[in-house]
Amino acid sequence: MSTHGTAEPIVVHAIINGKKIETQRQYTRENPVNPNEIVCHAPINTREEAIQAIEAAYDTFATWKNSTVDERVERMRRAIEKVRAAIPELSRLLTREHGKPLYDAEGEFAVSLMWMEFACDIAKDVLRDEVKEHEKGKTIISHDPVGVVSAITPWNYPISLSTIKIAPALLAGNTMVLKPSPFAPLAVTKVVELIAEQFPPGVLNIVHGEADVGVELTSHPKVAKIAFTGGTKTAKHIMKAASETIKKMTLELGGNDAAIILPSFDPSDKRAMRRLVISNFLTAGQICMIAKRVYVHGSLYDEFIAKYVEAANQWIRVGDPFDPDVTIGPVNNEGQVKHVQSLIDDAKQRGAEVIKLGRVLHPELFEQGYFMQPTLVLGCDYNDPIVVEEQFGPTVPILPFDDEEQVIALHNESIYGLTSSVWGKEEDAVRVARRLEAGTTMINTAAVQGLDVRFPFGGVKQSGVGREYGAEGILSYTDTHVINIPTQLELPYIPE
Ligand code: NAD
Q1: Which CATH number fits domain 258-450: 2.60.120.10, 3.40.630.10, 2.40.128.20, 3.40.309.10?
Q2: Are 91 and 106 contacting, i.e. CB atoms less than 8 angstroms apart?
Q3: Is the beta carbon of 153 within 6 A of some atom in ligand 1?
Q4: Which atom of ligand 1 is found nearest the CA of 179?
Q5: What are 50-100's pLDDT values in tens digits?
């Protein structure tokens, strides 16, 4: 069995002002299938280099902000075509550094391009000045770029969570410094290179590293906005760092998304059950909006579990992510394996039953890589850590509930509120959905299967601030500027 792991490591660079920067210190990113295999060497940029990138973006903004939306769209469309042509090569790099199966890596590229194209399609309309003639005169409302945007992204969807920020920020006339996660720095840097080449030097820059570079990107006075996707804990540091200079921010954070299975759901609906399994285990469960806890109405519980296990055993095939029969690859990194395993061990100690799901196609790889066989956890209490914390991995607790009031309360007790899903007859599901505290609720599907880039996406409560995607996803990179031309120039109540 080939792990496609024989290629030479690739060297990744920071790009500042259109130039690749040579750096003193580097780190290595390993292949999660075989941690002895180095996939790439990436720089550990210094704070000084982060400042250089910010300065380059700041200086370039002075002219770039005056470009027309037509010009920006034209450049972005050229960039999209460059990325599209590179997908066969780049999705393989993504699979090697990340561990997600090739179909999943290609899917991530497809969603990224879908959004970039949609952003190009709507940019002119969304960014157009609104001119209002009214009884008090005339008002022009323009959507001005904010300036330098620091984009900081996680490892789980490095391409889509970067392009979700790059496309709207640049189309709105901003410049950007992006810092990807050290756990998947390779494919995204290649994507940034391809996009940056289509824009003037300094419009799109990329630096690498960990928290110290992140701190510079989130506190430097010349940064106007932070676009962050990652953990809620990290976001708390970022808010503090940004508070000194009151930066604007979009935060896309963690979630503990629930799937609620109503009495009107039919457990023998094989397509629906397959969708649910996928929404629990796609990308080995490492998606912010994966369904991380499932509540099933008690009247269905036994039949539901039996049918769920059947569907899961059919769909889940773990192994080499380059094998087209494999649906789930390894977990991305060792820390994540330990985190997920500790939640499972804790649940077992509390008396839960842990059921292994699916088939392992390449047992020989399990010993060497960050593999975990997906599991179902039954018999948990509602407040067990595996139920209330974000596992972000291939395990899911399923719990029974008695009635709508109870399950709505269980859903809304969470500190998170990213997405949720309700499964059953549409009218029942929508009735429950309206009462859930979440940024998005999907009916009879969940996670990326129910995502639509045309509409805003983001979380409530500690799952985030602001929205990406849709028109809001572009406007969030602008400041509203009102130019008032009143006919009555003085206020009558102010004495002469
Ligand atoms: P993370 O918060 O550990 O890291 C995210 C990024 O922040 C990385 O680039 C990291 O290097 C950087 N960073 C770390 N400390 C920093 C600091 N002090 N200042 C600035 N930057 C800093 O998250 P992760 O482990 O890479 O990703 C997993 C988390 O991301 C999960 O909680 C998941 O739910 C969340 N996520 C949310 C969404 C969403 O859209 N809501 C999407 C994907 C992932």
Answers
A1: 3.40.309.10
A2: yes
A3: yes
A4: 9
A5: 999 999 999 999 999 999 999 999 999 999 999 999 999 999 999 999 999
